[in-house]
Amino acid sequence: MNFQNDRYTLRLADASDDPGIRRIFESGSFPGGLDIRFLRGDSPCGSFCADGDAAKILVIIDNADNTLAAVGGAVIREEFVNGEAARCAYLTGLKIHPDYRRQILFIPQAYRFLREEIADCRYTYTTILDGNTDVIRMLEKKRRNMPEYRYLGHYTTYAFTHRRNGLRLDSDLSGYEETLHRYFAAQSLVPCRQDYPGFGKGRWYALHDQRELIACCYVGDQSAFKQYQLCHYGGMYRILSKLPTRLLGYPAFPREGTRIRHGVVSYLWVTGNHAELCKAFLQGVAGEAGYDLLLWGGFENHPLVPVLDRMKTVRYGSRLYQVCWEDSTVPIGGTIGMEAALL
Q: I want to staple 207 with a disulfide (CB 3.0 to 4.6 A). Which of 5, 113, 215, 284 is the partner?
């Protein structure tokens, strides 16, 4: 599909586009005091597919020299929403190479193209970093020929470090599979499957009290699919990065230009949402897992978010939106259990 006097072509991506997509990811970073570059490895198309059952990724090609100018799309997966399983599309966001910003003028047509590709999805949603204020202002304003971005609330990703505390952890979830399934199935935007490669290669951690499971989570190494590179520090982080933060219980700040060796916590469950138990469990997991830092993300109405808010963490925030193609779109409700590993 060609646009702007045939200068640009819009089409679905395939593996041959990996070098161009990688170039776009390497050209950008998260805005704010923590300037972090999010990368999807040598095979971005494979990385998108690892997060769901399918990926509909669009690319915009400059026909003048066959340069890939922009990438965006949706990852599709079965998720629990409002108490039932539904086919959902998570929009990955449009990334435009700096050389082409403010030059691509057919975004509404790109949305229509994507809508056709994900027409069988009952729900569509996305997240936008708090610091990305220009995009937030643009998308929150209702526009003709564009879907509505309906704000649902705030999502926080927490980074924390290890502090060994003597807890005896194992991987035994036997007898509790149905209990855990009911717990996560009662939340919205939780994947129905737990075996997506995007969760990362890792293991379950469980804590028992006299053989009764009282806490568990999965920790995955995502380095095969996703990486975070610390570009540079700004604002107060430039000062904090020079302090011995590990001695104070916070993660150590990586050197500028390095990739962060991180693990991602998913499917966190603590009996009764007990605050002190959750804190001790996560510190024990971090100590045993051995990463430089662990990440866990929670929506504002998740019962464990207040626990992480009181822990010593470094955090960054995002805004969660339901993308509504029609006025009659059924709202996403209830407790949101969205997993940071698949965002």
A: 215
Q: End-to-end distance of the chain based on CA atoms, in angstroms?
A: 28
Judge whether 50 and 223 are in contact, CB under 8 Å.
Answer: no
Exposure string of 67-88, with b = 16+ CB inside 10 Å and e = fewer, is: ebbbbbbbbbbebbbeeeebbb
Residues whose CB is less than 8 angstroms from the CB of residue 309 and which lie 6 or more positions away in sequence, other chains included: 156
- Tens digit of pLDDT for each residue in 284-304? 999 999 898 999 999 999 999
Strands (E), 256-342: 262-270, 293-299, 314-324
Pick from 90-99, 211-220, 223-232, 302-311: least confident: 223-232
Is the pTM above the cut of 0.85?
yes
Instruction: Please write the tens of the pLDDT for every residue from 236-259.
Output: 767 666 767 766 666 777 788 788
Pairing of strands 293-299, 262-270: parallel
Count the neighbouring beta carbons within 10 Å of the beta carbon of residue 328: 6
DSSP letter (8 states) at residue 198: G
For residue 268, what are its two tokens? 């966190």
> Based on the number of CB atoms within 10 Å of its own CB, is 150 exposed (0-12), middle (13-18) or buried (19 or more)?
middle
Phi, psi of 330, deg, nearest 5: -70, 130
- Tokens 């933060």 label which residue? 245
Q: Which of 334, 22, 24, 26 is nearest to 190 (CA)?
A: 334
Distance, CA of 28 to CA of 112 (rounded, Å): 26
CA distance 210 to 208: 6
Phi first, then psi, for residue 185 (nearest 5°) are -70, -20
Token digits of residue 51: 């997060």
Is the per-residue pLDDT at 123 higher than 90?
yes
State the chain's mean pLDDT as an integer: 92
Distance CA 268, CA 278 (A): 9
